[in-house]
């Protein structure tokens, strides 16, 4: 059973993404409403999440900054991160890809296919 941490400042996105991943794939979902909270939740989790689905645009600490801090955090570094963004410009896509994240998925997402998209980009079996 996969464990996914969803980090997004929007309650609706956390709820829809979490429910869709639970319902379509049976994954165990943990959520955080900010980058700082996400790092704390992830560092304290036992077992650790198998992957992190994280929004790019968040107040205080955005997704790319949170990702960089995660890579410096023992026990958190190395967990695959999939960014979720409404930014679809080519320059943004290249910047995100250059970070070293596992993938970038785009909002709005289809709740019925989100789990399969994540499984595909992480090389996991079909859900």
Automatic annotation (TrEMBL):
SMART domains: REC. Signal peptide: none annotated. Residues 3-122 form the Response regulatory domain. The keyword Membrane does not apply. Keywords: Phosphoprotein. The modification 4-aspartylphosphate is found at residue 55. It holds the Pfam family Response_reg. It comes from the Bacteria. GO terms for biological process: phosphorelay signal transduction system. This is Response regulator receiver domain-containing protein. It comes from Granulicella pectinivorans.
